[in-house]
Write the structure tokens for this entry.
Amino acid sequence: MRTDKFTFIIFVLILCFSTFGCSSMKPTVFLHPEFNFSYVERVAVIPFENLSKDQGAAYRATRFFITELLSSESFEIIEPGEVKRVVEKIGTTRTAELTQQQIIQIGNELKVQGLFLGTINESSIQRSGSSTSPVVTMLVRLVETETGATIWSATHTQTGKGFWNSIFGGSDKSMSEITRKCVKNTVKTLID
Amino acid sequence: MKKTYLKYWIQITLLITLLLSVGIKADTNKSNAYTIDTNSVVAVMSFVNHSGNSKAIPAVMELLYAQLDLYNVNYLSHTIIRPTLRKHRIRTVGSINKDDVSHIKESIDIERIILGSINIYKNRENPEISISIRIIDANKLTIIAAVSQSATGKDFEKLFGLGKIESIDLLLQQTIQELIKKLIKDIHAYDNKAEQKLQPYTIALIPLDNISENKKAGLITENILLTTLVQNRYNVIEPGIISNVMQKNRNILRGEIDLHTLNQIRNEYHIDLLVTGSIDKFELPRGSKDAEIEIGLRTLDASNGKIISMFNDCRKGNDSESVFGFGKINAMGNLINESFNKYIHTLEKKSEKYFAKQN
């Protein structure tokens, strides 16, 4: 009887770990409670800033982000080449930290109601013993272009190894797959 | 009992012999199935070499001319037209623009021009070749036909490891034979105005951005994308023309486009769609490691710059492998082709949906 109880407790604990020991934390989200999101129809995605050591991380994340937004069919997205032209015209290098004036200026130039700004804080391969696991952390926010106010922001970390893979082993995901997953989970917090 | 065993042995031997004979390629159907207009003079430009192997160009061009002779193509080789190119200072290889074509036509009366690229030429344990070729109408500057052919030695491997090609020369011969055969077939269809369901859109390709470790990845992938689009009956503007527009604007774009350049290209060449994108990963097969690519493409409505669709694909050579290596894609060119076939499917669906909504 005691053995049965003990086995049952162990089983429940394992079940809990597998459920909660997920391959990522939940995103930290801010959604402006009073803003009317239906007002935002046309948006531009400013190239994400890269604070990681992975050179292609921001470019990759920006592209996946645009794809994810497009597939949601929630916004009309401005061609990145045109966005780049306007951003270069303004002459800023820190694309994640635009001033209110710059945001308004870009908004007027591109005729958009919102700008997505983002940063890749981490994009690396973590090593634990003989196994490796990619990790991506991104911070993205949506600012409306009339006042420059942030109406949505999300910070999310995604890793490549889940609980079961850690125990039983399994194929590691590539950095692109993890980035894509991170982007998907981030966008989900805005468009559900 | 002994008779039964003998019967079984004979049956097994016959079966193996049959399988082997099916496996052995008997490509004797070389030249005469399709013929093309032999009055048209075709200028053959020297192929651009992305392989990094200097032996590739002479090897490829020699075999190319041998194949063109088999099909009785009336051509002027790159060595014959070299003085004309020098005279007009035409230095580009692999593509051509309006001005260069008119300069060439001043000196030589040509109807068509063959352009090509040697994408991959690897002489190793499992040799690998990838070549792209296209033929353009020198008067209309339209792409008549375009073909890419890729192969590794392992692609010819049949049962029990038999048939694998280990010599790059033999592999090159096989590849060029197939390449020219397909090209001639397409030219024949074009010349005889065979009924083909043409796609209603004219497409311009903006050079792809390359963030992979292979410096030539963008150029190689563009060539294969071009041939895939043409094979799927899209009317594609000759890339040399687009490059010329960007050079004149002093704005060389890769992976993106601004509205001003888009409007210029649209007005001048009446394009409907614009395609661009980037290559994130381009790893050739090495040892036990399979080929791997990561591609992102974007399709824009040329009338207003709207993004119609985005396509992202990560692919490895062993993704389609089932058992005993069957289904595995060994050649990088074929892997890229698989990815682009998926893109074409997406493009057709999304553009149809988009333009239906517009109407």
